[in-house]
Records
---
Amino acid sequence: MREFSQGETIYESGMKDIVGYVVSGAVKLVTFLPDGRSNIIGIIEAPGFFGRIFGVATEFTIEAASNVIVACFERSAFEAQLVADPELEHFIHMENLHQLDEAHERILVLACTSVIERVSTFMVLKLLAGSDEDRKAGVVHVPINRRDFAAYLATTEESVSRSIQALVRRGTIAVINSANFRILKRADLIAISRQDEDYLREMVRSRGGKKPAGPVASAAWRDSYGARRAESATGTIVTAE
């Protein structure tokens, strides 16, 4: 396991290709434009995988969106283990489908015509996909800071702040802290988002809501992986402590 502080680079082009498993926190997938500007093209929260398997090298820079704990594996060794472990292979398949569904949700958010609609749609989706406890309490967790949140929504930090303040003044939401919000008027938030709640609910339901931790979260699995890797000499785990 390795710990990374918010903003640290976990992987970038030119480094040895890895597969990473986010144990806690969140990472962001970043691309850079020729003029030096950056785009956040994805957020992966724990539990979740990043990295390309059985394909070309990862073309994104992976940065810690918050303080994170990540298990990193050399890609060739992980691919060999994937072939030998049907449970892991199934989990990776489901993870890929989950990330594809999240990409569809982001497209829906970015299709909104105003920033306040994007913020509201994002919060409704996060609420519907949250734990039973969070849904009951109306709590929404935003796993990234305000600047990254604005970049994720393809707008400015000032526009996001104005939208959140407008929702607070309406009594629609309350700010718990910089990363957590409480939905006070769910129907109002959905109305502002201009989305169909049944459609959003079905979208979240189809991907099964919150992901299970999966086999890699198990210390026993990692120990077994290390032992089998050493026996077969298929590769090296970058970090497995």
---
Amino acid sequence: MKKTPLTTRFFARLLHGRLLTTLEVWTRPPRMQLASYREATIHQGGEVHLECQADGVPAPLLSWVLPDRSVMTSAGPSTSRISVDTNGTLHISVTLPSDRGVYRCVASNSAGAASTSVRVHVSSLPPVIQQPREEHLLLSPGRPVYAHCSARGAPPPTLRWRIPDGTLVRPSQFLHGNLFAVTEKDAGDYLCIARNKVADDYRLLHVTVAVKVKVMMTSVPTFTDDRSYHVMKVRQGATARIPCRATGNPTPTVTWFNPANRVIPRSLGSGYYFERVVVVSNGTLEVRVAQKIDTGNYTCQASNSAGERSRVVRLEVETPTYGLRGRVEGGRWSNNSGTDTRSGDNINNGGIIQTSLLCTGV
């Protein structure tokens, strides 16, 4: 041990004069209490704490020499990321790749100096999401979605959710992972993206919203007249009314097709000539002032969600065999001779047969 005597004088008042006293002070150079060299590996974005312990007489002053040759002490200035405690520990927060290198701690006093070195390695790790990579959720409308997504990595990854419409949102926009109260339109795929400078990781959440389905018993339409084909005859100029009634669940829709297989329109109630062949409100087909060209097969189709049925009615328009030269006069057919009359179906001024016709002539 090196001894460095230090002499000082002080005076004490005594009865017989002055007393001179000599003091000797012993010193000891610093001695590091940690290994002279060690290594530390830190994940990027993490924190590092490098200890430095030394003893000596007098107590040594501790300082750190950084990889860029700058010197830091507890009494000196610090940066936003790097600082030195009073006990000599060096702190680095949010470690960066540029922080890798050799850090040297120096302990010094009046008797000498000692040092120890730490080589810091900064590593990077790809993000790893802690929850299952894929998950299916079946939810009722109005219920909240709790979608958790957390990840580890170096540097620490950022998290984003991509919702079904493609929008990216931050987890901080939701409270405790509660995304939203779902409705039917919220069903779809939700993608959690964990990203850092090394790589990306993903978690896929399939959200299905249960829809209440009303169960309804259905039945195929059935015609009240079960004949699939029959013939109806009508005199020329009269009105043919062909009913078509069907039952089923849901209630069937009745559609009529003419001989050319074209849909016959429904009556607007105008009474104009262009409404001569129409379907009235109860599904009955009316052929007004029937003509020979109206002869043919007419198809009634009854349909609903359970299926459809069809029936064919052949309409035959017959030319009257009497009153060939007659004319309508106040609802009566007559010829020029006027010598004979025959009871028949009455005809109104519109030429539509109602119940009977009264004809005159041979």
---
Amino acid sequence: MAGTTPLAVVEYGMVTAVGFNGPATCAAMRAGISGIHQANLWDFTIGEWLSAGRPPMPQWWEGPDMLPELLAPAIAECQEKACALKFRSGPVRPGDIPILTLVAPPDRPHRASDLETRVVRGLAHKLGGALPPGSEVIPEGRTGLLTALDVARKYLDSRRVQLVIIAGVESFLRQVLVEHYIQQGRLLCGTNSNGFIPGEAACAVVVSRASDAQGPRLVIAGVGEGHEPGQAGGTPQSPVTGDGLTKAMRTALSAAGTEYHQINTSLSDLNGERFKFKERTIATGRLDRLPPSGKSTRPLGYVDEWHPIEYLGEIGSAVFPCLLGWAFEAGRTGHALGAKMMLFSGEDQGTRAAVVTMFEGGKHDER
């Protein structure tokens, strides 16, 4: 990534299957409450309804024009919280905060070719006016956070803005999509246990320069990127190697100046597909070593794994803002097992992204 200015998450917002705002979603996930229920999606392999994670929206929508309906409340939550933050230069107005929105990449099946335009137009309508200057849509899916952080850093370094909102939104709750993933052997259904549960969500975080944040903040201490040759599950010719995730995590750890044995908690996009667990196992096996004392210092003796998709379903482009928001809330409320966390995610075309975070100014457990 370009630039070295440390950034920090200072607030967040969410619309998910377990809550219509950030704190409600995080409280539900921490309590183990699942938003997975029977949905109006048909499993043609056994002739039954599928389970899915659907937010409590007032009516049923599907397709790209529904995404702004999901996204607007999460953005509005971030804007409201951002206006309450204190800065030396004075209060911030919603119109001064650029919105960077992560959406599905062009190779996502059955994706609208004009998705970016429809999301911008719909979001502007829902928010009651043109989006703030500098707002843009980043069509890079689960790993688009890497680009979004670079763009946010550019804006914040210019001192033209004090805050940037990074949001993600995606829905897998369409019959045409679930049929595609069933045929690909990637969806959890009556004839396949090696698959994900479809979901939809919008999640967003408010980012500032770490040096400007005066309250609790989740500092993005290190970022890494890698490429997995096996992409989404591998083939006999190109099997899963874990190389991409290993590189991403190693780079993030190096940038943060830390070792993996100092990480107590990991948040990720593990979704029930075996290849994701396989990559995680390979990468951590390569990176995790005992500290010089020869004895683990982790409170549980192992890395505590948090994966929101267990409760929300597969949420695609919304997953990294979700991970950052949950990590921020865990630090602020003292539920984290220490200040440092490892966050990672992967996109189907092979990109892998990892972020090491450090919480400052809250009730996190320093053990």
